Amino acid sequence: MKASPSLVEHLSPAAEKLLDLSDDERIERILGERWIGYTRAIKITKRLDALLKYPKTHRMPNLLIVGRTNNGKTMIVSRFASKHPASDNMEGDDVDVPVLMIQAPPVPDENRFYNIILDRLFAPYKPHDHVSKKQIQVISLLKRVGLKMLIIDEIQHILAGHLDKQRQFLNVIKYIGNELKVPIVGVGTKEAIRAIQNDPQLANRFEPEPLPKWQMDEEYLKLLMSFERMLPLRKPSNLIETSMATKILSLSEGTIGEMSMLLRRAAVTAIETGSECINLKTIDAIDWSIPSQRRLSVENIV
After folding, report:
1. What pTM does this model have?
2. Which of 165, 250, 179 is nearest to 216 (CA)?
3. Disulfide-capable partner of 104 in 10, 31, 157, 290 (CB 3.0 to 4.6 Å)?
4. What is the tens place of the pLDDT at every residue in 200-225?
């Protein structure tokens, strides 16, 4: 039976439609990832759009998106990349790839870096080829596919190698940007800033765009309202009520990824228990551990 309209004013139209699904189906939808266009994310997306349209020059601007682990960095750039997918080039032999998103290798290794790009583009290559040959292949291929932006996630991995390896890897990034005349977007934790600053020339080209921790303010309350409108529960949870908002902020330690996981687990519990709303009792029932406690527990085990 469809819920009464008076009971679902707290939901978006899309979430309201989900109330007609079975409990298992609603839970499946809740556990899926969702995009919430909060102010900071929209601002960064606009910056990415502007960079994508930037005319080719000998000194292209770059962007460094920096934030704590699980604070939405990768989701922003992944969504942006998905809006600019590869497409068939009817006038040429190669596909068009306007945006290429890759993850930095776990250590600053030029050979692994080229392998990742070639694998991402499904290009044939010989793993044991000399790195100089792969470099030529990568540059040639990226020109052919019409690359307009390169996104490198987890760029702080540069720091996992010796200083000479770090410098070598930074030179590779600089070389690709200069050769292709495309903007490069780095994504990582605050250590990424230190990694880029090892090369003064790159440091001047990469403009930091921080994703700070959430705090108790109007933007945070708007975010909670967005979460509530998207979770298909039959009763309002009133997440912006002071005690609820304070507890969610504390348990998530101010990161949007933790908030999302916390609220999704609480929403599942609300369906399973029949309460159909998230309240302090529901949150206590999921036995949530804050991120710093999880890290400490692992350290104690190891």
Report:
1. 0.90
2. 250
3. 157
4. 888 899 999 999 999 999 999 999 99
